[in-house]
Amino acid sequence: MAITALKYTVQEKALILGIESSCDETAASVLRREADGSIEILSSVIASQDEKHAPFGGVVPEIAARAHMQKLDDIIESAVTRADVQYSDLSAIAATSGPGLIGGVIAGLMGAKGLAMSLDVPLIAVNHLEGHALSPRLAGECPFPYLLLLISGGHTQLLSVKGLGDYQRLGSTVDDAAGEAFDKTAKVMGLGFPGGPNVERTAKNGNPAAIKLPRPFKGKDHADFSFAGLKTAVARAYDASDKTEIAKADIAASFQEAVCDVLTERSLRAMQMFRDDIKAEPDSAQRFVVAGGVAANSQIRSSLDKLCEDSNFSLLAPPLKFCTDNAAMIALAGAEHYALGNFDNMDVKARPRWPLDGDSAKHNPASGFGKKGPKS
Ligand code: KG4
Ligand code: ZN
Fold first, then answer.
1. Among candidates 19, 45, 9, which has minimal Cα distance to 114?
2. Using CB atoms within 10 A of its CB, is residue 209 exposed (0-12), middle (13-18) or buried (19+)?
């Protein structure tokens, strides 16, 4: 993050407008940060594009980018109105500038630049993953450090969150995100989009032991994930089945069981890595936060609950409105950077790839380090 020459002075109290557009939610939020670091969310407005992507069984980047462009102005206007503030009261504009679907990120970032320029306030380019990393703090006290499992449609990561700007990626998916695996499983069986809730509903009537599915990376001494093979195995199982409601329920239940197993086993591995990373006393109590849309799944939640109980971690599952994509988390990250005077110049670019913890991503080729560099 570039520090703009002393054009702006940091005010003790800040009113930050956050903008989020990295996937299929167009969102804006106004958040107040007091000098003592306490925060208040004055508004958080989210427009979902689910209906637009549903016919395709997944997010279509081009459709997402157009929808962001159409909606952004209204969503910002509504966030400012609901917060009962004036544009001229805003201290800074914070916007997601990556990682994400590039068309959407550009739409949000350009909107933010225009506003920052016209209001003559600083622009703060926020890493979307940093928003997620800080998001449990929107719901109340959540002191650093904590271990974060982020499971959404776009990301699956285990992060050691030690302080603002101090993150260690302990594990990440090398292919699909967990939510993507749910969405693709639903698509194969014609259950509708977004897939997660439909797979969960269908799984309720099924036998989780009916179909033998792989547990990718189980037992490996890293904390990475892989879901692509699981998705293919589900497609094969469905092809070979008689496609009845019972067959669908069995496949959904077996798939959900496999995802649960993988998430808990990889999280257990990350717990040890986290203890090492923060140099914790052996057996000391620690915090484990689960965020992202997939955290809505009740079987996954109860498996993680049990894992935490057995491992001396307390489980924090913030309300879904804070852990699925939203702009309040972007405003919060922006507010923290604002307080430090970390501002960006107008030439800051939208980034499809932007690992939160560049060094560890570079040194861990398993974690999605492609030709163009680490993804996230
Ligand atoms: O965090 P999120 O709202 O946003 C994006 O990643 O954009 O996560 C959405 C993902 C989708 O893939 C959806 O299928 C999944 O979260 N999801 C679930 C459940 N509810 C939503 N996955 C499993 N079980 C659920 N109950
Ligand atoms: Zn996200």
1. 19
2. exposed
Global pTM reads 0.90
pLDDT digits over 262-300, tens only?
999 999 999 999 999 999 998 899 999 999 899 999 999
Give the atom of ligand 1 at the shortest distance from the alpha carbon of 324: 1
Ligand 1 geometric centre to CA of 286 (Å): 26
* Helical packing angle, 61-83 and 102-119, nearest 10°: 30
Distance CA 200, CA 73 (A): 35
Residue 3 forms part of a structural domain: no
Q: What's the CATH code of the domain at 117?
A: 3.30.420.40
Cβ of residue 57 lying under 6 Å from some atom of ligand 1: no
106 lines ligand 1 (CB under 6 A): no
The 10s digit of each residue's pLDDT in 65-103 is: 999 999 999 999 999 999 999 999 999 999 999 999 999
